[in-house]
Design brief:
The complex is a heterodimer of chains A (424) and B (302). Chain A has 424 residues and is an alpha/beta fold. Chain A has 17 helices and 15 strands. Chain A has two domains: 193 residues, 3-Layer(aba) Sandwich (D-Maltodextrin-Binding Protein, domain 2); 200 residues, 3-Layer(aba) Sandwich (D-Maltodextrin-Binding Protein, domain 2), CATH 3.40.190.10. In chain A, strand 4 and strand 5 form a beta hairpin. The longest helix of chain A is centred in the C-terminal third of the chain and has 17 residues. The relative contact order of chain A is 0.17. Chain B folds into two domains: 45 residues; 236 residues, MetI-like (MetI-like fold, Orthogonal Bundle), CATH 1.10.3720. The longest helix of chain B has 44 residues. With 302 residues, chain B is an all-alpha fold. The chains are: A alpha/beta (424), B mainly alpha (302).
């Protein structure tokens, strides 16, 4: 049905494209986060005269909505999600308006280190609105009980996990191996732990040699699963389920591909966690010491079909303000908190939180973000990222399931990269 | 006077001929606009390279079709989907007939049982898949708990995602569970319309229960079986929800609908998506016609 609708509309009239319609003072914002409290949005309306119609759509559904609406030149929102992984795709398709007229990436770089992820050839495709990055978390209580030190290297991590097993925790490490985006992101993080990146600046595969970081990362993940450090059921486990059903329930004691903010939003929530005040962020255990943290920030952008881009830009400025974000993350106490709000995207906002002491381990996160966060791709996500990611998670999943070897997995991924590069 | 009456009769006859067309016209128009035109557009665009990542749209002959058949994930999905359809149609139809025969006669609590039996059909497919996903869960699932408590398995097993055919079978179980109630209802309605006189006559002739079923019941419910089988075929050939929830995007148990979705909205290859959806439509139509012909023409064994 979607296909036939798309077929009918592919030659259709452009609706609302480039329309600023300054007379209107309402905008539609489609996001995969819950709406901010009405009082918060009312405050924005009072300040600017712009009414916000917030539409919450599930992440996957929103990505489909963006593709189907944008490819048929149909209006659906004035501002919506720009995931870091789709920046290259959006730059090529031209589905989002460059935001340089409202934001200056160069001047924001020092306060928003992840802004480069959203820039392609000088065009700012979206504005990051959080500081999400991959982190390693460990249950320090479990480690202490097992007589294991907090690991600083991957060898140290393996030794600690074996001690945890000997102490009675059957499968102490969580790696989510379901064929889904979270598995691809985890590979990028594990590759960073081994000191590399998966693609070069020219998008050439950097993971086919057994000595490469990417190859070793897949081998580590597959071996951890096959050797029993990771539970057998994880072959079908998605990332969020691993955090809420495994780590938060003390089934595991270490997460290598956790998300910044999980301690405050998941592990330290007494109603749904049995590990309150036990889990800590630690520097990524690398091959020889602390390794980088892969940044996967969420962004917000203005589709080319937006009816009121100027009002949308005003909203985005307000939405990404350092103090506003710090307040919504807990700076002024629970009454102003937006449920599930991620880390503020600006270092200045994170500093406010760290000084307040109201968000668990905000100072540790600030240090990790400032010193270790790096983009997963040096040149930004390629325009064919979705197909690349599909090849990544499919083949790592198959290697873990025993349907292909690690060498076959990396060969298949590399082959897909060649095909995608050849097709442009 | 006679001439006037004859003229009025001809006008009535003409109106009589037009009336059916006038009555079906809105439906025909509705189908033409919402089905035939998009199908025609899909057919045409399946021969074009249509991708926002590779503009402009241009004619590329059979390249979309060739690419589909060279794609191992798509060919795996073809095989999986044929298995889903074949097993789904046979299992849901046999179970539907068995259930309808068992529940044809009135007895105490029949109404409650009927309500329970049709419940899987009434639930959204995604909800059902989530429920079954929990049942299959290797850590907390009831399947492992039951088998373990009965000492049929030593440790907890992983059911989905490791073995292709086990994954396909377990997804099929969920699908059959959902499709069977509608088959059951269609066949039950047909069963209840059979005159009891026919069974009385057969009994007088000394026919056994099995012979009555084969010589009286089965021939008379054949049209209902055909309808039930075709609806099962369409549902199972277009399976998406259960596959997506239980198997994710992994190629192991992937279906053609899932591949159509991935080709179109993940890869943004709209031309490939049009081609694949057209092939799925053609296969569904041809197989449905085959099922109808098979059920109507195959003589009932005596």
């Amino acid at each position: 049905m979607l296909l036939t609708a798309a077929a009918c509309s592919s030659g259709g009239q452009q609706i609302g494209q480039g329309s600023t319609n300054s007379g209107k003072s309402s905008i539609t914002v489609d996001m995969f986060y819950p709406s901010p409290p009405k009082a918060v949005l009312a405050q924005f309306t009072k300040q600017t005269g712009i009414t916000v119609n917030w539409v919450e759509v599930g992440y996957d559904d929103l990505q489909t909505k963006i593709s189907s609406a944008a490819s048929s030149n149909t209006y659906f929102a004035d501002a919506t999600d720009v995931d870091w992984s789709r920046v290259g795709e959006f730059a090529k398709t031209g589905w989002f308006q460059p935001m340089n007229q409202w934001f200056n990436p160069a001047s924001l770089k020092s306060d928003v280190p992840q802004i480069g992820t959203f820039e392609v050839n000088g065009k700012l495709i979206g504005m990051p609105f959080d500081a999400s990055f991959m982190v390693t978390t460990v249950n320090t209580k479990d480690l202490t009980a097992a007589g294991a030190a907090v690991p600083t290297t991957l060898d140290g991590l393996t030794a600690a996990l074996k001690k945890l097993q000997a102490h009675g925790m059957a499968a102490p490490l969580d790696i989510h191996l379901a064929a889904a985006e979270g598995l691809s992101t985890c590979w990028y993080q594990m590759t960073a732990a081994y000191g590399g990146q998966v693609l070069s600046a020219q998008d050439a595969p950097q993971f086919t040699a057994p000595s490469s970081a990417g190859y070793q990362a897949i081998a580590f993940m597959v071996n951890a699963y096959k050797s029993g450090l990771v539970a057998k059921g994880n072959i079908q486990e998605t990332d969020y389920n691993g955090l809420t059903a495994e780590m938060a329930k003390n089934k595991v004691a270490a997460e290598l591909c956790d998300y910044s903010g999980s301690v405050g939003s998941i592990y330290d929530v007494p109603s749904s966690s049995s590990v309150v005040n036990q889990v800590e962020y630690v520097p990524t255990p690398g091959a020889t010491g602390a390794a980088p943290n892969v940044a996967n920030p969420d962004g917000i952008g203005i589709p080319t079909t937006a009816r009121n881009p100027a009002a949308a830009a005003t909203f985005i400025k307000w939405f990404t303000d350092a103090k506003n974000q710090a307040i919504w993350a807990g700076l002024d106490g629970p009454s102003s908190v937006i449920s599930g709000f991620p880390l503020p995207m600006r270092l200045s906002g994170l500093e406010l939180l760290a000084k307040s002491g109201k968000v668990p381990q905000a100072d540790e996160l600030e240090t990790l973000l400032r010193q270790h966060a790096q983009a997963p791709f040096p040149q930004g996500a390629p325009s064919w990222y979705s197909q690349f990611s599909n090849a990544v998670y499919t083949n790592i999943h198959q290697a873990a399931a025993g349907q292909e070897t690690v060498q076959q997995a990396v060969n298949n991924i590399a082959s897909q990269v060649s095909t995608l590069k050849a097709s442009g | 006077m006679t001439v006037v009456q004859a003229g009025a009769g001809r006008r009535r006859a003409r109106h009589g001929h037009l009336l059916p067309w006038m009555l079906v016209a809105p439906l025909v128009l509705f189908i033409a606009l919402l089905s035939l035109y998009p199908t025609a557009a899909t057919t045409v665009e399946s021969f074009f390279r249509v991708s926002p990542l590779d503009p402009p749209t241009r004619f590329n002959g059979l390249a979309n079709y060739r690419a589909l058949f060279a794609n191992s994930a798509v060919t795996t999905s073809w095989v999986n989907t044929v298995v889903y359809a074949a097993v789904g149609v046979v299992a849901s139809t046999i179970l539907g007939i068995a259930g309808a025969v068992a529940l044809k006669r009135r007895f105490r609590f029949r109404g409650i049982i009927l309500a329970l039996v049709i419940l899987p059909w009434a639930l959204p497919a995604v909800d059902e898949a989530v429920i079954w996903n929990w049942m299959y869960d290797p850590n907390y699932g009831v399947v492992n708990s039951v088998l373990h408590s009965l000492h049929l398995i030593g440790g907890y097993h992983v059911y989905l995602g490791l073995d292709r055919w086990l994954t396909v079978v377990l997804i099929e179980v969920v699908q059959v569970w959902q499709m069977t109630p509608l088959s059951f209802l269609i066949i039950l309605a047909a069963l209840q319309s059979i005159s009891p006189d026919l069974y009385e006559a057969a009994q007088v002739d000394g026919a056994s229960a099995w012979r009555m079923f084969r010589r009286v019941t089965l021939p008379l419910i054949r049209p209902a079986i055909a309808v039930a089988a075709v609806q099962s075929l369409v549902l199972s050939f277009n399976v998406f929800d259960q596959v997506y929830v239980l198997n994710g995007k992994a190629p192991l148990g992937s279906s053609l609908m899932l591949q159509t979705y991935l080709t179109t909205f993940q890869n943004l290859d709209f031309g490939g998506g049009y081609a694949l959806s057209l092939l799925v439509t053609l296969a569904t139509v041809l197989l449905s016609a085959g099922v109808i012909v098979l059920i109507y023409r195959k003589p009932v064994a005596t």
